[in-house]
Known about the structure:
Elements: E1 2-5, E2 12-14, E3 31-37, E4 45-52, E5 91-94, H1 95-100, H2 109-113, E6 119-121, E7 127-129, E8 137-141, E9 144-145, E10 163-169, E11 183-189, E12 197-201, E13 207-209, E14 213-215, E15 221-229, E16 233-247, E17 257-274, E18 277-293, E19 305-321, E20 327-343, E21 349-352, E22 355-357, E23 362-378, E24 382-383, E25 387-407, E26 409-413, E27 419-426, E28 430-449, E29 452-463, E30 469-479, E31 487-497, H3 502-506, E32 512-518, E33 524-535, E34 543-554, E35 560-578, H4 590-593, E36 598-623, E37 629-641, E38 660-661, E39 668-677, E40 683-692, E41 696-697, E42 713-714, E43 718-731, E44 734-743, E45 753-754, E46 766-767, E47 773-783
Parallel strand pairs: 8-11, 21-26, 33-36
Antiparallel strand pairs: 1-2, 1-3, 3-4, 5-10, 6-7, 8-9, 10-11, 12-15, 12-47, 13-14, 15-16, 16-17, 17-18, 18-19, 19-20, 20-23, 21-22, 23-25, 24-25, 25-28, 26-27, 27-32, 28-29, 29-30, 30-31, 31-34, 32-33, 34-35, 35-36, 36-37, 37-38, 37-39, 39-40, 40-43, 41-42, 43-44, 44-47, 45-46
Amino acid sequence: MTIASAxxxxxxxVLATDPTGAFECRVAEPGGYLxxxxxxxxxxxxxxxxxxxxxxxxxxxxxxxLREVFESLDVSASAATVDLDRTEPEKALRGTDILAVxxxxxxxxxxxxxxxxxxxxxxxxxxxxNGGAEEQTLYTLDGFTVNDPLTGRLESRVSVEAVQSxxxxxxxxxxxxxxxxxxxxxxxxxxxxxxxxxxxxxxVPGIENRKGLVIGDWTPRAxxxxxxxxxxxxxxxxxxxxxxNHVIDELxxxxxxxxxxxxxxxxxxxxxLTPSNILFGGFLLNYxxxxxxxxxxxxPLETTTDRRxxxxxxxxxxxxYFTRGAVVEAGFASNRTFGREIPQGHGTYILTPDGRRGNNxxxxxxxxxxxxxxxQAILPAWRRAGNHQVKAGIDLDRITYWQDxxxxxxxxxxxxxxxxxxxxxxxxxxxxxENVEAAWFAQDSWKAWSNLLIEIxxxxxxxxxxxxxxxxxxxxxxxxxxxxxxxxxxxxxxxVHEMAGLRLFARPSDQYSLATYFSxxxxxxxxxxxxxxxxxxxxxxxxxxxxxxxxxxxFTGGFQARVTATRKRGRLGLAYLNEITPGDPVPGAVxxxxxATSFDAVNALGNHRLDVYDALEITVRQPLRRQYEWMxxxxxxxxxxxxxxxxxxxxxxxxxxxFGPMPWDAPNRFMSWGYxxxxxxxxxxxxxxxxxxxxxxxxxxxxGRAVERINSRRFPVFFELNLHAERRxxxxxxxxxxxxxxxxxxxxxxxxxxxxxxxxxRFLGYYGGQSRSMNFRIRWLGRK
Length: 784
């Protein structure tokens, strides 16, 4: 913020608040002053007149969250100086950005996350932060963990209109964040206000010509927010539905399509019990029904699975403010998830060099849950060699997992369609596990000088499964040379200890596979050979270390540039490693206990995993007036591991060497997006451009073994350009926004499926991808 004397506007002072939003300013004399207050994601407070009297004065400024602007308003979205309250690069999306950028399937928040530098979306829609796996990121919704307790991933859907902001943290993490070695993805939802607001989007389905006229992907959404009691309590409710129609060009008519439905609803409530006591609560519900999941050019209808899932997430938080800037908050969240997979039949699943046939071999029911209690306090600020702000807290979690999985079997065929390997399963697939996690943390934000911030923190974690107590130090700094504070050097060092995943520990009690190998004449060569999983304690807790160093500068006109280097190393990661060579004899009667004559794999759980991620990122960005903005980013990176494939009973492949690039590794990636004004009033242009190296994949033989180094080949270079035009207008007393444009305007195929079987006549045949498509979006923004 800036403050200037009304009598002498040239004498200006630049101030920054502490983490609680409090600030202190000493002026030479009483009188009138002009104040400007700016904060990313909020409307700017310009030239607010205040009058200061002799002695102490207490003044409060309220900034309204940035929303879509319909009228011609000048909105400044960014401060002119760098933010010295942060020790890591700011990677955030405002709700207005999410609605403006034309990414495909704009109702899915996960699709929007790919426009944040450092976040990669794989070909299946998964999100990867700083080179990590999906489950290695800590996802939070309004401060609570929202990782799916079943998979550890971000499975919950939230309407994009319900999102106030999304922030990615991955460098100098604050001590309050743990468990996510890839970083943190924090989602903040919108709250209601004293004004009743309502909207609807895509409420009319479209017709597309995709091998005949069909209803295209339809994503109707609606939102309603307003006061429960003006000035005291507010609500916000967002409903999102999605109908997706999948058409596979390479399959024959009648067997080339499937569709699925998804519904999510988020209700959020805020009540100011007193001016210093605020109560927050929310309830998120998700349901998904997807028959014939997995349909592709290489997987016809008979091989698909009918999938259903549902999830609910409830959270409640109480926040109390005290004198001298102290804040105490406590909250509880509960998450429950259910997943069902049903094959089209119980015939044998057949893997041929030219694709797959038969029925999927997995029939599964899975349930999981998480209960979380957290409490934290920001202590009163105190002075000693500068200003100190200490934050401390605890986090307690209980996670449960249960499954009932029944597997039939599958068979590999040679190129002449004679049997090569037949796999069946033994044991029971009914497993239950639970874990308890506990953590405490403390961190001091030390403003040594007005242009230097140092953060020092310590976090301790414990969980019942591993039984270890760990300590994770945190350090970060931000320094700005000169009084103008337009440049910032920042960096930090973070240690994160990962907690145990329940599905990983469930595998030794799950089913095991039995493989029988046949000669070309149909005679048994070997087998049945078992592949089993063992977990023998003790285990150490996985440890990941991340270092960052960067430079940021803000030029006149709001133009921003940033360079960031990131180095992450993970060791002691939990993974399964095959301890034998396939076919080796095992002494004693051990194989006979599994109904086998030998072992293909004895996969032992241990601290085998090593991960490497390095990245150099260059980002330029320019927020403009009236919420217009553009951004461009180039990232040079590598993501490697010695546990690329997650070995499990559900993966039919055998990997003699498991070291290589991760499936989402993209060494070179350029991305740019913008929402820009035109020469015509109320018209705007939006674009998204992404170009990157193709994702890696492995080559396999007709017996299901990797025959080259894992992920040694790559898909073709990915290139996508989406270009849309939007007009906002008033009609019959209501506000509307209409958008039309093309996705993948260059019509580049960008395949996401490959025939990777070396013995197939169609080896290295590429399929899938999205052709050029014309898209329309109409939004009803309520009354004028």
